[in-house]
Amino acid sequence: MKTRVVSAFVHELRRSVGLALALAMILSLGGCLGKAWQQALEEDTPAGYYRFMREHGDSEFADQAREHLDFHKLYREPTLAGYESFRRRYPTSELLPRLHPVLEKPAFAAARAAGTAQAYQSFVERYPDGELAARAAGNAIFVASEGFGGNADRLAAFAGEHPESDFAAEAVRTTEAVAAKRSAGFGAVGLVLEIDPETPERMRVRRALVDRMAKLTARFGVQLMVAPDGIAPERLRDFPAARLEVRHVEAPAPRESGEGQIARPGMLGATDVVLRAKAGEAPIAKRRFELRVEDKAYVPGTSVLFSPTASKYWSEFFVPVASWRNDTTVQPAIPLSRPVVELDGFGDRAVVLYEDGDFELLGLADPTRPITLARYARGEDYKKWSGIRSIAGRIAIYGEEGLEFVRFTAKGAIAERTWSRGEIGRVLSITQVGDALVVASSKGLQVFDPKTDEMRRVMGRVIKSVDALDETLVLVDGESVYLSTLPLLAQNRVIAQLKLGRTFGPNNVRVLDRAAVVTGPGGALLVDLKNPDKPKAIAKLSSREVGEVVDASRVRGRTFLVGERGLQLLTRGLDRVEETIDVGDRDRVSVMGRHLVTSSAAGIQVVDSTPWAEAPPPASARQAVVYSIPSSGGVNP
Q: Are 456 and 440 in contact, with CB atoms under 8 Å apart?
């Protein structure tokens, strides 16, 4: 009995000691875990939390470790989408306030991408003491005021009050350009003509060039003073400060063409035309005109300018004209990764299309510092997309492959609706009439009704370009201009037809304010649409006057043409060119606030239209006067 009692006592003692040891071990382990977690918190690095997860991945602190890891990933690369995802996953996290400061830059980028006054103001309310608050506040004011209507005085005041704004630098440039036009204009230009002594029929070439330039400048209303041949440099001081410098030379043509191929022997004539505000200053504009005549067509001892093939040279030859240093309005070209095939401007941004259907949305508040706001990559090798338009908050791209609508979302640009070439044909042009989308394609004129989600054909004729003024459509088909409405087209009727013929070849139309500019190889036709029921042709400018024109635009009451002669401004009467702004080849032009944005194969360029929107000078200052200083060797055109 005594032995059993002792045995039971020993067993109970052993059990109690085991429990105590187990409890001590648990407490010891808990202390180690707590210490490890505390150490991870104090270190507060991704490496520390990864180490804790590796060693204690199934502990009670594992979820907190994952939360801290997610926090550090987001903190290192903050995005608004990432923040929203983190907030949904950890709605009560104490780490949320720590993310607020690092989201300032992404939040500002989002406000700039939206580009509205409300978006900028919301940013200011969220980050009132942030480093970008003043910048956003200035942007909000500028956008809300719609750029102050391009008023130079108000732009200057804005730049002084909000120097941090993205719009301030260009506002200063506008102010300076307007001041330059007001104070530094020139009413006359001196022509200094240099003909290389080895040029055959040298004096005949001189007379022909002077005669051609005199006629051209007379059309522009430019006062031209022609310097006599061989005039002494000191006598040039009597000439106007502005100079038109022309140099012509003829020599055997190089045997290698510009494309690396061997060319036939011949003679090459080259004429360089340079316009300067002052002798010795940087050129306002410069252009070279060349004529190559093969040996079999060249008569020795004669100038190539009078050869049977010289007509092309004389049809392309033109004189850039300006009344001030208007090149100050042209911002540096913005090179892009690929050739631009089309563009559309709106607000402070432009969307540019590439041939494969990819496009970029560029922010151009400061044209010298372009910002890519969004990109769209189709991911397929389509090669014939040719048009792009911003319509009702969507981007429409169209061309050989059909039509596609793209919408911007928080996750990027996505295709919202697509019509293949098999469904609607090769799309040439689009415009909007009310809620409906009018599509000109190889299958005729079609209308998409968003209410019924149907595309129906209203005209079988192939239309090259279409635009609209309210309910009135303006259409061109390569021969004529038509005005009609959708109900009339359903009855196969039109309001009016203007026949221009295949020589003019109308292939593009832009409705600008209450006028239409129709362009083609033959020049430009301007049509008054103040009364759409009775359209009136205002002016027809031939390609001999303005070159081949491919596009047109109108901003703040002034009309601009682009084409082989660059960017040209028409007079307010729309009867002739008033200024040559840029002589480089241009293919497209669009309005972007108070600016124009033009495109060429090399990229895009922004031009400030503000200086030309001011009141014109008195009529007497614009009258053409062409004269020269008499000299024994001179020419009086």
A: no
Q: Which residues lie closer than 8 Å to 297 by C-beta, 6 or more apart?
A: 266, 307, 308, 309
Which residues face 468 on adjacent strands? 473
Instruction: Tell me the whole-structure pTM to 2 decimals.
Output: 0.81
How many residues appear in the chain? 637
In which domain, by residue range, is 282 found? 188-231+240-325
Strand order across the beta sheet in which 480-484 lies: 465-469, 472-476, 480-484, 496-499
Query: Which contiguous run of DSSP H or E holds residue 357?
Result: none
Q: CB count, 10 Å around CB of 98?
A: 11
- pLDDT, one tens digit per residue, over 109-164 is 889 988 999 999 999 999 999 999 999 999 999 999 999 988 999 999 999 999 99
pLDDT digits (tens, 9 = 90+) for 339-398: 999 999 998 999 999 999 999 999 999 999 999 999 999 877 666 899 999 988 889 999
| Two structure tokens written together for 552 | 């047109």
CA 445 to chain CA centroid, Å, is 28
Same domain? For 315 and 221 the reply is: yes
In 3D space, the residue among 382, 470, 484, 406 whose CA is nearest the CA of residue 440 turns out to be: 484
Residue 99 token pair = 């993310």
| Residue 139 covered by a domain | yes
Number of domains in the chain: 3
